[in-house]
Amino acid sequence: MIQFQYVKPSKQKAAIDTVAKDETAMFIAGGTNLVDLMKRGIVNPEKLVDINKLPLRKIEKEDGHVRIGALALNGAVAEDKLILEKHPLLSQALNAGASAQLRNMATVGGNIMQRTRCNYFYDTAMPCNKREPGSGCGALEGYNRMHAIFGHSDKCIAVNPSDMNVALIALDAVVLVSGPKGDRKIPFAEFHRLPGDTPQIHTNLQKGELITSVDVPEHPYTKHVNYLKVRDRTSYAFALVSVAAALDMDGSNIKSARLAMGGVAHKPWRLNEAEQFLAGKPANEATFRQAAEIAMRGAKAFEHNKFKLKLGPNTIVQALKNAAGAV
Amino acid sequence: MDRVDGRLKVTGAAKYSAEYELPNMAHAVLVGSTIAKGSIKSIDTKRAENAPGVLAVLHYQNSPKVPGYAQEAHPTEPKPAGKPLQVFIDNQIHFNDQPIAVVVADTLERAMYAAKLVKAQYNVDKHATDFNQNVPKAVLPTAAKRNPKHGLADYVRGKEDAYKNEPLKIESEYVIPTEFHNPMELQSIIAHWEADNRLTVYDKTQAVIGTQNAFAKDWGIPVENVKVIATFVGGAFGNGLHTWPHETAAIIAAKKVNRPVKLMLTREQMFTMVGYRPHAWQKVGMSATKDGKITAITHEAIGQTSSYEEFTESTLQQTRMMYTSPNVTTRYRILPLDVSTPIWMRGPGEATGAFALESALDEMAYVLGIDPLEFRLINHTDKDPEKNLPWSTKYLKEAMQMGAERIGWSKRQLKPGQVKNGEWLVGYGMGVGTFGANRGRAKVKGTLHKDGTLVMQSATTDIGPGTGTAMVQIAAQNLGLPPEKIVFELGSSLYPPSPSQGGSATVATVGSAVHAVCQALKQRLTSMVAGNADTSFKGATVENLTFKDGYVSLTASPSARLSFTDILKQQNLPELEVSEESSPDNSLRQKYSMYSYSVHFAEVQVHPLTGQARVTNMVSCADAGTIINAKTAGNQMIGGAVGGIGMALTEGGVIDHRFGRYVTKDFAEYHVPVHADAPNISSLFVNKPDLINNPNGTKGIGEIAIIGVAPAIANAIFNATGKRIRELPITPDKLI
């Protein structure tokens, strides 16, 4: 680990100014990802700006949405009464992530910013365009069991590892950021990027911009929801495939649906066409299977992740079944 | 009885090797190679040397020489052909992440940072790390080439490959990936040269005396000048049975900087520098009669080893002795690859072999339409068909019956896919395990103090099974002293010699010496009271005395009694010290075949759409002789079952063969099972003594706790789904 400076400002503006002005500075909150990356020499900030003194921890109901502070802990959000009542899908997704110890350290803002777990990104002796642009993608012709089947490029096939992000994209969340040029709102679907030719650029956040909160708008998906994560071990493992499914039901018919996948793309993967297909259909396995087929259109797998072409739709079907059956 | 050191462990008061703080201690970090084969062209250490706090950067060009490196292999090692890796002797690279330099600095963080600044250039040679592509290069181990009667040599009982011509047969191939021990405690050492020729190490090891001998030989100093401390060991599962390059690197560093040096491997380095269970391919052919009698088994295995050292294990032993088959053929080969050398991992060899054998048994039972438990009972043998000897003891049938009742085997349907719990398919499976009931030679010193306490010492270790607790209980029972008055000290080379803690042999080995110490103490106390003025004890012998609660009494008239304390006081003795060595009776070992046995029953549920498999109930039963401590023995069985769940469902190392480098090397990517993967696990013991093996009647537990678990789970998955998965681990992608 390189020697670094550490500051802990109590004013948001000071924190933002410090990072905006210093090329080598980074924000740190829970540190559950960043410290690992620093220990392995993957990112090497020379200054850490600890934002834990900033008043960004609250979860509050506001007009038309619930506002979750960027520093709210994953564990606290998952157990929060308001979240359980209004956004149970988010709670399920959070509880599917990491371990209890990590959820009690990790923040919502940090979870959004979490880097990929691609094996090649994590090993500085291996090629990785995301870590070292131009060095090549190690996974493309390497061990790519955990990798993307949607939206990848020949420069990068890594996936976004977050569970929370999958629920947030399904729920049309909005990320509030504050930066040297002022505040702005970024729809969740536009926050993360596809790798294209610049996989080293992880999100659309600009230098010095700080996530201050996430707004989750009101929606009717409070009952028939399911976050289903299929993984290699029952806890503390990243998703092979995960699905966030939310249904608004009218008897046994679907009024509207929200559907997103994790573990399949460089960003949380919203399944808009499948959602549109589900609206107005009867909630049965045949419908779910058709929606899953629509969802999988355009998927392209690699040597070790071909199973995702089958596990993906199966998991969609099962998540929809679970959501429809949930009371 | 609770663990004697339980409180120390749960409160954090137990001190592990890396937790010692010595004055002026420096910290060392290893730099690993980034190629799998070739040589170092140049090594740039300038930036590292100039980094703050750095005391030395050592590599093959400037490392102090290890005098003993010119000589033969270490005595603790598995007598391999070839030579164990010698650190910093030349520029040759034999595997990816081989230690090429050690950076020593005043703090750990500074050493870590500087280690990243060391840059090597290589001449790269073409490496071979892909097992499947190199199978034709598999060879007979050297020991078997030299001696056709060797346990690793090809074995034929009856007719060779007799299954091939039989009508009712199976033939299947099985694969296990490389698995890693990954104990919680990282491998670590503090090396301290107290004088030029006097070395003290606080070392994570299973072998105190073995390590002492190895370092004495390395450095050409008297054995008694090397002190090895391993009071607590935070799990090891076999990877502390070897002395490894990182240990020597720390000792070299300490020599160079003339300060105590602490070196702790990183979790990533635990995957490349301290051994592993080798990747193995196996093939089993089996035939049987319609009514279920096995007529022939052929079992072949190829295990991975390194290019510089032959690692072998007894993968095929269970096949030769477990079932009554007139025709048995086994063939074992090893495949040298450009990887680091494997080392014994819990249930070494047998756990690998049992996965194939016990899966094949299940496959054969399905061909015959016979219940797999019934099939095993039909082929049960009451003598060792390999050695043609009676068993010392064998209560496997009793264990099977206990386990079958507890799991509810009768609920099982022979036809797969019949039982459901909601959407989940339910299945039951079983697997049998065995391991030699080993016993070695150990010495224990016992000192009975006049305050009535007994302190025993021996240079064994406790890697978690509760050795000290078991020894205290053995002494309490044999000497008639309350356990709270007994202390057993271990983990120091200053104590009388004991072998390494491995091969499930510690209780049989050290426990026998504790037994001998107690007998000797009783004899001495008896002579004292018999020669005493108190006439009631006159002429007493050990046989007509009772030793209980710290008192000696006449069995015939218990009211006449003397406390141990009073006996010593009468003799004017501050203490009574005895040292006893105990060895197995080799003549008995030639008359009897000695094994521990286990049988594991698993209930699993598999989701047909998502392929998730979960073990929902597990019953592990053992015939392990007398159970000294039900809690610690139960702990071992549960730990083994969890390890077996990992082997069956989650664990496997993956190499990117383009680089010959592991891509799974931390706890996020290498999936050791977590609590959520472990169901309620019942452990049951037959608990009948094996007095032929040793005077306490014990047989080992550590290995049989895992041997047979993985096939029990794989068989249960077949019973649930009709899918026979022959390559571990059984991850969801294999079940959709």
TrEMBL record, chain A:
UniProt entry tagged with the keyword Flavoprotein: yes
InterPro entries in UniProt: CO_DH_flav_C (IPR005107), CO_DH_flav_C_dom_sf (IPR036683), Diverse_Substr_Oxidored (IPR051312), FAD-bd_PCMH (IPR016166), FAD-bd_PCMH-like_sf (IPR036318), FAD-bd_PCMH_sub1 (IPR016167), FAD-bd_PCMH_sub2 (IPR016169), Mopterin_DH_FAD-bd (IPR002346)
FAD-binding PCMH-type domain: residues covered: 1-221
Single GO molecular function: FAD binding
Keyword Secreted: no
Gene3D superfamilies membership: 3.30.465.10, CO dehydrogenase flavoprotein, C-terminal domain, Uridine Diphospho-n-acetylenolpyruvylglucosamine Reductase, domain 2
UniProt entry keywords in alphabetical sequence: FAD, Flavoprotein
Record protein name field: Xanthine dehydrogenase family protein subunit M
